[in-house]
Each structure stands twice: as C-alpha cells, then as structure tokens.
C-alpha cells in the first residue's frame, strides 16, 4: 500500500486533542473519517506530535497508507473537501517510502507560543493566543530561558502523566521575540528539540511568565530545573497560544517533492 | 450628561452589522446593552462608521452619554466585563466635550482589507480574511488602483442602496502591500478617505482582484470609474477580510488623554 505524508494545519479549539478518542472530536479522527470517504474502511494514521486539547498546529506531520497511488495534490484536495467544515487543512501531501514514519523518522519538533499582553479581551485573536493583562519584562524572561537550553533532566517541567521513558532531553532553542501583533504587543516563543515531554512547553511558558511579571527572579528557573521536582514548576499556562510549528526529517518529504 | 468616546474592536462574524436591529444581533446593540448594565435605561450610541454584516473593526469610534462622570479606564473595564462573551472590546475610553460627535466630528476613515492567497482552506484565519486559491499580480493591481485615487464620481463603486447624498468623494490612499501572513501570503489593502460610500471598499477590492487574476486589464478600472455606472463594477468581494482600522479627528480624544 502506498504511504503518504500529510502536512496538517488545524485550529485546536473544537478538538479534545490530536489523538482519536471514543466519544470526543479529535484531529486524528477527523482526518481518518475524511480518508474513509476516499477509500472505505478503517484508517489509522500516525503523527509526529500528539498535541493536547486546544493546541493548534501550523505544520503537524502525519502519514497514512492507501490502496490507490494517489496524485499527492489531488489527495490533499480531496481530503480538504471532506474535512469541511472542521478547521483542519492538509496544506501539502507527498508520497513517501513504505518504512517512512511521521513520528519515528522525525528528528526535530518546533513549537511557537503566542502570548498577548493587553488589557481589553482580544476579539480577532480570541482562542489563538494566551492573553495576560500586564506587561512582561522580556529581557528577564530571556535570561531565565538560558538556563533551560541544553541537555537537562526536565522532570520539573513535565506533567505527572508524561509517558516518556526518560525526563532527560536536549532543548536546542528557546528564543523570545517581541512582535507588534494584530491585537497588540505579543511575545512569541520559538522552541526546538528532538522531542518534548508532556506539557513541557506550557510548563516553560507559564514559569517564564512569572519571571516576566517580576514574581520570580530569573535564577529561580535554574533552581527549579535543578530540583528535578514537578512541584518546583511555575503554573502551566493554557493551551490556546501553543502551535506545533514544524517537524524536521532527514529527508523532508515535502521539500523533496518540489 | 458627560459624553464619552469609545474605541471599539470587534469580530464581525456573529453580528448583522454595527447598526441596532429589532431581531438580529448587532455591535451597537451589544454595547448599548452593556451600558444599560452600568446605568439602567435606554442608551443610544453613535459611531463613526456603520459597518456591514461580517465586517470587523480594529478601531471603530463611538460615543455615549452617561449620568455619572465615570473614570474612563473604569468605564472601559466595566463595559468589557458586561460585553463578555460577545467578541466586542472597548480598547480605550475618553471624556469628550458635549458637542463632540463620533460620526460628525470625524474627518477621516481608514480601512484595511486582508486577502489571503492559498489553496488549502484557512483554519486559524477563517472568517478573518478573504481567501482566493490563486496567485494575484500585485503590480497590476497597484497600477489599476492609481486610477481610483483622488476626487471622482464613484457611482460605479457604490451599492445601489447607498444613502450618501453624493457619489463624488476623494480617495486619499489605496495602497497594496504584500505580507507574509500567519496563514500564508496576503495582500493587505490600506484605504483612507474623509468618508466612504456603501460597499465602496468591497467593490474596489473585488474589482482589483479581477485585475490581479489577469481577467481585467488595469485600464478597465479607469474605464469602469469613468462610466459612472454600477453595472461596470467588478464583483463585490465578501465582507470577512474588511476591517475598520481607524478614524481621524481634529483633536483625537484618545491621544489627548495620554
């Protein structure tokens, strides 16, 4: 059966997360239902990152096996037709080798987090950002973020239900940029690692927000990390500012295509 | 009664437009209902621009008369509290003179239009842009737009139900910028005039899109304008890419405040 890689964008709000669930809407379930319209029967797809409820994707990657040797462009068009009106879009499709795997072939995940700083509730960006009503000190947050970069035991910053075999991971990037966004001043966080622990990004951002607000000294983030204790973490921030922004592969299936 | 100016942001989707209507939700109705929570009784507010159904605002301006001499910041906070969960936010409030009028004191209106060019349906920006699935020639659109700038009889570009006394208006600006937007390549239109006719911006954008797609030569826009005939207009584009982006006053009430 020919295998296809799918580049997937979605709005997380209506979903209980990526992963298929028996009685709640999921992104995986929506795409599998669309695949069943093209080729009747059961479909099971795998994804690079299993995002939580409310988390968005700009460029999630999944793969599926089909009977027919679809033209990739026509496959994406047909899936988008059947996905409507769910806020899920296949932005690219590509034919891949039979042993290529969206999750196991991936060597890097990239996340973006949008934090809007303004008083009045956001209207156009509601559900697309985490909004706080106070200003934040980006320089202090950057100083604190430096402690998190590199190889560490991230026990402090992973949820207690995290299923990863080890809390030891390498964080390759955590940069914070000030952006004049559509609804006002934003901090945009860019994170990059081979893989992330459950709730790791939201644990980072929620903790760094405390530093930006002046409630935590930057050094307290280093101390929290070294404690390797979940109770040393700051508050976990809400999901609606988080986007799975990209997945890296040795041979990018979408690059290769054109 | 003290008069207050309100700077208002809203998402147009759930509303039949700015103007209060007997049996449909309106932005004006939502704000008047919030005012009635602060000071019981009937409230009637006036706005600089009466936007149509589905049209958004980044910075609409309205004014209201209240009994109490509210602190402007507390007024905006109280209104935002009562406006929830409607996607309407008071981003600023200011005390103004009793004869200041949001509509009649205004000498300039600014509109922004977002046109997204991509094939897959937008998820995060659904309802916030007009999406076309083909590329557009921005240079040709700019050439055509030059014909529209200045003092003209805009009969071609106003709706047949437009109530303005005269179709002769001065268009001060129509610029088109290419932007790498959140969901892909966008054209952003910036328009500025003392006032606009009904459906004028959407008639412009819909017509210019035909030029960008290669269906119209840029000169045809000049001919359409000179015809002063509604039937010479191109298609009127949908409302969801349109934003009332600002209103100009001789003495800006929000600038004056801080």
TrEMBL record, chains A, B:
HAMAP family: TruA
Record domain Pseudouridine synthase I TruA alpha/beta: where: 8-104, 144-249
Record: active site: 52
Organism: Thalassovita autumnalis
GO MF: RNA binding; tRNA pseudouridine(38-40) synthase activity
Classification lineage: Bacteria, Pseudomonadati, Pseudomonadota, Alphaproteobacteria, Rhodobacterales
Protein name: tRNA pseudouridine synthase A
Role this protein plays: Formation of pseudouridine at positions 38, 39 and 40 in the anticodon stem and loop of transfer RNAs.
GO process terms (BP): tRNA pseudouridine synthesis
Family listed: Belongs to the tRNA pseudouridine synthase TruA family.
EC number in record: 5.4.99.12
